[in-house]
Amino acid sequence: MLAVTLQEQLNAFYASAPSRSFRHDGVEWTYRATGSGTQGLLLLPGAVGNGEAFFTLTPFLVETHRLLAIAYPQVDSLARLLDGLRAILDREGLESTDIVGGSFGGLVAQAFLRRFPQRTRRIVLSASGPAKVERAASNAKWSRRIGRLPIGVSRVLLRAIVRAALKPVTVDREFWAGFYRRAIDAVSRDELVARYALSADIDRHGPPSLAALPEWRGAILILEGDADRISRGSSRRALRSLFPDAQVKTFAGAGHAISIERRDDWTAAVTRFLRS
Q: Is the predicted pLDDT of residue 2 greater than 90, yes or no?
């Protein structure tokens, strides 16, 4: 039997999950939806790209979940972002959702839990960390700087970050480099400005407190690479301290792109957690 390439898997995902768009509170939202399950699954990507980056999960969860691959809109307000995600769940007729949040998406997942605990079942936080109030000013400053830079310069900087994250990847690196290159080429300066401003707003709200959610009965899985130079050791420790009852899986020697670098083990861990 011939092996299915990643490009073929991505094409199959596109075919099964046509793009959907709608307008909510003046914001244009785009996402892809697939799966016949009754449990929602928000796929929240990092700061660049969109939820289709988690397309490799589809074959394992398509029968149990309704997968929603989110493209972040051009918003600089956490409240508007979370309200839009809620509107997507309403639009899809989903009472509750699981969430896979990678890197920046993990911050959004934590904020969603705080705002909508009654609609949140299980959360996977991959290569992420907690919001930091003290970081908000820096993100706000970067938002202003990005607004003054030519978009070509910003794209060069983003490509350098992606190259560094993908450096430990030994299998299918060309595919993923092209995947993120296309995502970077598609982003506009206004979208980058908004993304940094949104990051600042997430940080201003700080991390959620499970003590403030005494009736939440969900579960959290933390996936981390112990060689991650973006979500560094202090950030990983802070996340584990924030959610002391979370399940934790550490990938020895893995960096920030653990969902790519250790794809099979990462996918197995996510699938077991969400299907259990």
A: no
